[in-house]
Write a structure and sequence with these properties.
Blueprint: E1 2-8, H1 12-24, E2 30-34, E3 50-51, H2 62-80, E4 85-86, E5 90-94, H3 97-112, E6 118-121, H4 122-128, E7 136-140, E8 144-146, H5 148-161, E9 165-168, E10 172-178, E11 181-186, E12 189-198, H6 204-210, E13 217-224, E14 227-228, E15 240-243, E16 255-258, E17 264-267, E18 271-272, H7 286-293, H8 296-304, H9 306-317, H10 319-327, E19 339-340, E20 344-351, E21 361-364, E22 368-373, H11 378-396
Parallel strand pairs: 1-2, 1-12, 2-9, 5-15, 12-22
Antiparallel strand pairs: 3-8, 4-8, 5-7, 6-7, 10-11, 11-12, 13-18, 13-20, 14-17, 14-19, 16-17, 21-22
Helix pairs in contact: 1-5, 1-11, 2-11, 9-10
């Protein structure tokens, strides 16, 4: 049998792509291959669960547009399928004059992206978040929270009911593009497809090279370490609390996040991960380590951001330093409040020149489309991303 479409990757982007193929091309045969035994195992299942509103992204960028569309699409999907979500809002808090300047820049960018943010003065901040300290803040009332694994599992159920063949526990080890079709092998099985879509996440570069694509980047795993607050402090905030981020960095800083189950997490930091899929602390995979250590772009990136990298490493190795980042805006937190929680690993595309790619990045051939880079807010944007990919593939098929 030759499938019309094959999707590699059972994260939320791959699942969304398969779902939109079934909607845009009813009757098409679709295969989805995932190397883990469950869908949404990696980035989808290890993020902070925030439904982003699109504050941070350059006006006119694909990131900004897809995030705005994804905000509405995610809420609509949850409403249609009785998936719990909450529009709790986000406060981005400035604690000094430098951060206040960053806040002003964010406000201008958000307005350019069509968002309606509210400026919050120090007295108003004290009223709406009495346990948070700052000199000013921006309120994003649209930002929300959800469990993206629940969304991914629902999509998996929906596409399975529509006849999509989902193969779990199948690690792809061969991709060969031929005239008219692509051969994909995993374990002891081989499938043929007229169109291949690869949503490989943390393995995107390896799958691209496996398929014969000439790429000039490497996936660098950035480990985000979180803590969970004790139950006694689940009411510490009413909104999500974010610091004013450094615009030169691709990370938003350590923040307080209300989770959809009622708990509150603190994090993440951003340190180099020595294993692309090793979530326990000190996990190490020598192939993953060699992959980025032998890549010149990695060393250029680290040197460019050496001060920030050392500060992040300090916070990872010494909890009081991590706590200090939190106490800038939440001074009542103590070391004993930082309880263990799962880590996340971000797949960051880094070029040979040492540049971190911040927007979505794709690669194409006659019969393949590879999603190279799907950075945050990929989970928020997953539904419109999947629709965009499906539309493109169906149009070319």
């Amino acid at each position: 049998m030759i499938f019309d479409y094959c999707v590699i990757g059972g994260g939320i982007v791959g699942l969304s792509t398969a779902m939109h193929i079934t909607e845009l091309s009813p009757g098409a045969s679709v295969l989805l291959i995932e190397k883990e035994k469950e869908v949404a195992t990696h980035q989808t299942g290890h993020n902070s669960g925030v439904i982003h509103a699109g504050i941070y992204y350059p006006p006119g960028s694909l990131k900004a547009r897809l995030c705005r569309e994804g905000l509405d699409a995610t809420r609509s999907f949850c409403g249609s399928h009785n998936i719990p979500f909450e529009q709790c809002g986000k406060l981005i808090v400035a604690t000094n004059t430098l951060e206040l300047d960053r806040l002003n820049g964010l406000y201008d960018r958000a307005v350019a992206n069509g968002l309606k943010l509210t400026r919050v003065c120090v007295d108003e901040l004290r009223t709406i978040e009495p346990r948070i300290k700052g000199i000013s803040a921006l309120l994003s009332p649209e930002t929300g929270i959800v469990n993206y694994q629940v969304i991914a599992r629902k999509i998996s159920d929906l596409i399975s009911a529509k006849g999509v063949a989902i193969k779990l526990g199948c690690k792809v080890n061969r991709i060969v593009e031929r005239p008219g079709l692509v051969e994909v092998s995993a374990n002891d099985s081989t499938w043929n497809t007229r169109k291949l879509i690869v949503c490989g996440g943390l393995q995107a570069d390896r799958l691209a090279r496996m398929a014969g694509l000439d790429i000039n980047f490497r996936i660098i795993p950035f480990r985000g370490e979180y803590f969970q607050l004790p139950e006694s402090k689940h009411d510490i905030v009413r909104h999500l609390i974010y610091p004013a981020p450094d615009p030169k960095l691709p990370f938003l800083g350590v923040h307080l996040t209300r989770m959809i189950d009622g708990s509150v997490t603190v994090g993440p930091n951003a340190v180099i991960g020595f294993s692309r899929e090793g979530y326990p602390k000190l996990s190490m995979n020598f192939n993953d380590l060699a992959s980025f250590a032998s890549f010149p772009g990695f060393w250029k990136l680290i040197w460019k951001h050496r001060s920030h990298a050392l500060n992040e490493m300090k916070g990872s190795l010494w909890r009081p330093a991590y706590l200090a980042e939190c106490r800038k805006y939440c001074p009542e937190l103590e070391l004993s409040d930082l309880q263990p929680y799962r880590a996340g690993i971000r797949a960051q595309v880094v070029t040979m020149r040492g540049e971190a790619v911040h927007d979505f990045l794709f690669g194409e051939t006659a019969r393949m489309l590879h999603v190279y880079n799907a950075p945050s807010p990929a989970a928020t944007s997953a539904l419109p991303i999947g629709r965009m990919i499906a539309s493109k593939c169906i149009g070319q098929n």
